[in-house]
Amino acid sequence: VLIRIRTSYKSIMSAATTEIESVTFDEKKIGTEEISECFLWTEAEAQEHSRCQGGASNCGATALLNVLAALNLPQPEADAADKAVKTNLRKHNVSLSAYLAARSVAGTTGEDIVEGCALLGPESALVGRFFPFYPPRKVNLQTWLAGWLSRGCSAIATMNFQKMYGSDAWHHQMIYGVSDNGVYATNGQDVFSYEELLVGLESPSILAIRAADVLRCDPFDAECCDGIDSRWRDLAVCKQCEELKKSKEAGEQVAAHVFIPAAYTAGIAIFAPKDSPAAQQLREASELPMK
């Protein structure tokens, strides 16, 4: 894998910054240096080689395919990737409880993407590990990510886009580069500032459902929601839905959203070629400490 690295050597003897323009993983020695910049692709290469999702809720499978592409590993067909990461679709024209239950698991989770690596068939050449970022972790996101990318790894961020941008869902994006400018990702072609990215990473597992989507469900069996599991009772989903409907029927201003448990954990999955030194380092790495 061709990677581009910038390392800042922090020592008493030298504070020089060394540029390494085109370095392969085997040539790079990870020592006492702190890596601040690393790219698997240029932005132009990412535009050329990365995939955009071809259907609803399959951003996780798309991110995994982009990891394989960036690491020059065999890629399965898109439907095989969907199956491997257990992509779930939203449900429509169903009861309220069925709609909300499907929304809570729509797409896939970072953990399922990691597990999906082993389900891509005997030719699978990738291993992964998911690092939760909620509760918030004590980590320098730039050097942590750049360090893994410099070892010949790639990454997928699982982010709460609702908290970041007011979007309708969470999102998975493959990370191909890190620099002082931020984190470079595919599907879409984004550069996140570290502050921006941490908003989506330091998020509880909660999904906001628009009031209009809740109110159009029929039958409106709100009483069934709290029976899904204890997290639904803790969030009083039944009460939220009933109060929303009462406000609507009374002509009062209604809440913008109903909040339900989400299957997703915010965090970053790191992926390494199987049997590589990085794969062993990934297995042995410590969990990120809490803040």
User: Cα-atom Rg, whole angstroms?
Assistant: 21 Å
**What is the averaged pLDDT score?**
89
The geometry reads as elongated
Low-confidence region ranges: 7-32
CA distance, first residue to last residue: 34 Å
SSE series: EEEHHHHHEHEHEEEHEHHHEEH
- Helix tally equals 12
What does this structure look like?
The protein is elongated and about 60 Å long. It has 291 residues and is an alpha+beta fold. Mean pLDDT is 89; it is low at 7-32. The protein has helices at 43-49, 59-70, 78-84, 96-105, 110-116, 141-150, 161-165, 194-201, 211-215, 230-234, 237-249, 277-284; strands at 2-8, 17-24, 34-39, 126-132, 154-159, 171-179, 182-185, 190-192, 206-210, 257-261, 267-273. The longest helix is centred in the C-terminal third of the chain and has 13 residues, at 237-249. The protein is built from twelve helices and eleven strands. Strands 1, 2, 3, 4, 5, 6, 7, 8 and 11 form a nine-stranded antiparallel β-sheet that branches.
